Amino acid sequence: MLITAQQASNAAELTFKSFFYSPGFGGAAALAGGALALFGQHLASKRTLTGTRETLKQSDTHHEDERSDVEETKALERCWTRFTWLVDRTMPTADSQARLFPIEVVLELTDRLADDAETYGDATLRDAIREFAQVVGEELATTDRST
Q1: pLDDT at residue 34 greater than cutoff 90
Q2: Cα gap 102→144, rounded to integer Å
């Protein structure tokens, strides 16, 4: 039996049409749709994960900056406390002309405190310490001249 081209064409159409309406085509279309949905979900979750990581990194950096600021503030408070302690114990009072520390020690302490103030960026404290060191230095010079 010899098949003509038109018969072959009709058979191909019947085969394609029958496959298009068959449960196999429906299953293949569902599988392709599911794969496409899975790929879309993968891309969306990857973008979300990347955004979450960036947010966490920024949050960590922000918290680290806050901790650094708090530590620096505490260090500056300690500098001010040490400076006031030094002034209170260095300057002779009306009751007593005696000093707790020699002037050379006071000058060394003021140098170190001024360095700390410079490190933490407090110009007011640095200037106050230098002014105090100048007063103490002048007092040392006056004491040396009178002896």
Answers
A1: yes
A2: 13
